[in-house]
Write a structure and sequence with these properties.
Layout lengths: L1 H19 L5 H15 L13 H20 L10 H4 L3 H17 L8 H16 L1 H13 L4 H20 L5 H6 L5 H7 L7
Helix pairs in contact: 1-2, 3-6, 5-6, 5-7, 5-8, 6-7, 8-10
Length: about 200
């Protein structure tokens, strides 16, 4: 049931946000997350090649994310950090990068529902590795603070979907290129999303 596997990521995110907003009780949200994590946790075949520590695994994952973001921007920028100034002013792009990270780290089992702080720490390390120490931290903090912004949410969903499509169908991710190079706005990006996943 690949459709169920794909949409569960977004369902899990929605329930976490509802729990934060007090729309659902915490034990129910935790139970929901634990069940879906057990059912759809990372596939062991996707794990980086025989890392001996989480730190080595994290480096491999960060390298993968960096490569996939770089390829999307190569028409105009040599590296994602070269696009930082324009990225910081575009909530769609900020959301895309966050969603891409979130989806990748979830698929590799680095976002643990019982300890989400570990996943956020890995994500912050990735931002700092890719965009530079201070700039990456600023971008990460901006992303965390933008969770309720509607443009950020559209970008986040796009980034998350594209990573899933990349892993399952080998479809190259192009959303960041569409946003920063082709100038897609929220309405244009919205049309690229899988409407079966939108609630």
């Amino acid at each position: 049931m690949p459709a169920v596997e794909e949409c569960q990521i977004f369902a899990r995110t929605r329930v976490v946000n509802w729990a934060k907003d007090g729309k659902v009780v915490s034990p129910l949200a935790q139970s929901f997350e634990e069940v879906l994590f057990r059912a759809y946790g990372p596939n062991q075949s996707e794990a980086p090649k025989r890392p001996t520590t989480n730190q080595e695994a994290d480096k491999s994952i960060i390298s993968l994310i960096e490569s996939l973001l770089t390829v999307q921007l190569i028409l105009r920028y040599q590296h994602p950090k070269d696009a930082l100034s324009i990225l910081m002013t575009n909530k769609l792009a900020v959301g895309y990068v966050f969603g891409f990270h979130d989806s990748c780290l979830t698929r590799f089992g680095r976002i643990d529902p019982s300890d989400p702080e570990v996943g956020l720490s890995v994500m912050q390390n990735s931002y700092q590795s890719i965009f530079g120490n201070q700039s990456g931290l600023a971008l990460f903090e901006m992303s965390v603070a933008s969770q309720e912004d509607s443009e950020f949410q559209i970008g986040r969903q796009s980034g998350g979907e594209e990573y899933v499509e990349y892993t399952q169908e080998k479809t190259p991710p192009l959303g960041l290129q569409r946003i920063l190079i082709l100038g897609f706005d929220a309405a244009a990006l919205w049309r690229t999303l899988d409407k079966n996943r939108i609630q």
